[in-house]
Amino acid sequence: MEETKLSIALKELAFQLEEKEKRAAELVIANKELVFQNEEKEKRAAELIIANKELVFQNEEKEKRAAELIIANKELVFQNEEKQIRAAELIIANKELESFNYISSHDLQEPLRKIQTFASRLTGDELQNLTEKGKEYVRRMQDAANRMQGLIADLLAYSRTVSTERKFETVELSTIIEAVKRDFLEIIAEKGAIIELQEMCETEIIPFQFRQLMDNIIGNALKFATPDLPPHIIIRSRIIKGNQLINPNLFVDKEYCHISIVDNGIGFDPQYKELIFELFKRLHDKEKIAGTGIGLTIVKKIVENHNGIISATSELNKGATFDIYIPTLHDK
Amino acid sequence: MFSGSLHILLADDDEDDRVLFTDALNELKIKTVVHTVNDGLELMEYLATKESDLPQLLFLDLNMPRKSGFQCLKEIRSNHKMAEMAIAIFSTSLAEKDIEETFMHGANVYINKPNTFDDLKKVLNKVVVTARSYQDTFYNKSNFLLRL
């Protein structure tokens, strides 16, 4: 009986011991876990400190950047204001130039008309009283006065292309060319000229400016005709994509109306292909071919008013070709 | 129809133009009586004194000192007593604005001062003949600007 109790107590002790060892082993594991977790936390803390420093740095950078932006912004506002001031100044200067141009051309006509009228009286009833020399002097005076009249008329036309309202309308180009043909009826008949319209299209243009443009180009083709050869002018126009064109100055994604005017006149040396569009530039002696050197400048100005480009190609005595490209849509 | 001399008045501040104008009219076959005034103020004073014996045809320069031709045109056309008088604008200007506005304000014809004496005679002849034959109708918008 005693023995049995003892053995039970012993077993119980042994069991408790086992349990304690188990618990101790568990504690060791738990402790290790804790140590590990602690280390992790310290690592995390160290990382956080680094991250924090990074944040502080980034914050400082942002503030710097913001300060820089404020300065840049102020600069922009200033530049913008400057631009507006400059633009306003330009508008005023332009207006002054226009009115100066208009008034001077206009007021110049007045005394010129007197010179012409009184000269015409000398060649009228008074002609019989003049010697041959005197008649010659009057003739030269009249020539000079007529040249000046042409100059003033062209200057006025030029200033109009700069100053007038730009109202685009969709127009069939052939109607404009037919009107120009009527302007030159006499010269066409006199020279036996042929103006041939091939393929024609309609496009958005400023009608009266385009009439002036055609007037100047066709007028030139008739004027600079090859001696003893009736002028033959071929005009065509068609809608074309920018990427189909050889001209590198066109936008590939835009649509253009391409107008070409080809003549069989005396042409010009290719080295002058840019020069001919400059104001008052003439390639010919004014005794041989009359002109003011404004016509093609007006043409170029008008093409620019249409946001287009123009180029001239020629060889001496082999006719000239004018290529005009006008965008079909005018976004403004 | 009108018989006898046509009574013409010119208002122009330019002496050369007044001389050329009178010379040219005197060389025409049509009989005319020409009187000239030197500016717009003088014109209106002259017309005020001649209310019962107004000229049949007035040539009016636009750019004049003291009172412009345009101002005169407006005053004349707002006075019913002068309704019968034909008005020919006689100017160096070919500005569309001038042509448009003088037409709107009741001028009968617009003459751009010619560059030769011959052309001057031709335009004056044309206007005088028209004024003599059809005093009522005269010109409409499409042929308002006289071309030779």
Q: What's the overall average pLDDT of chain B, rounded?
A: 88
Q: Mean of residue pLDDT of chain A?
A: 87
Poorly predicted runs of 5 or more residues of chain B: none
Bin the helical content of chain A: 55-70%
Count of helix runs of chain A: 6
* N-to-C order of helices and strands of chain B: EHEHEHEHEH
Q: Largest sheet of chain A, if any? A: 5 strands, mixed
Number of spatially distinct domains of chain B = 1
Report the portion of residues of chain A in β strands.
5-15%
Q: Which outline of chain A best applies? A: elongated
As laid out across the biggest beta sheet of chain B, the strand order is 2-1-3-4-5
Give the number of helices of chain B. 5
User: Considering the protein shown, what is the CATH homologous superfamily of chain B?
Assistant: Response regulator
* Structural class assignment of chain B: alpha/beta
- H/E series of chain A: HHEHHEEHEEHEE
Distance between the termini of chain B: 24 Å
Give the largest chain-chain interface (CB within 8 Å): A-B, 12 and 13 residues
Number of strands of chain A: 7
Percent in helix of chain B = 25-40%
What is the level-2 CATH architecture name of chain B? Answer: 3-Layer(aba) Sandwich
Which CATH top level class of chain B fits? Alpha Beta
What does this protein structure show overall?
The complex is a heterodimer of chains A (332) and B (148). By secondary structure, chain A is an alpha+beta fold. Chain A contains six helices and seven strands. In chain A, helix 1 runs antiparallel to helix 2. Chain B has 148 residues and is of the alpha/beta class. Helices cover 39% and strands 18% of the residues of chain B. Chain B has a five-stranded parallel β-sheet, sandwiched between helices. The chains are: A alpha+beta (332), B alpha/beta (148). Chains A and B meet through helix 1 of A and helix 5 of B.
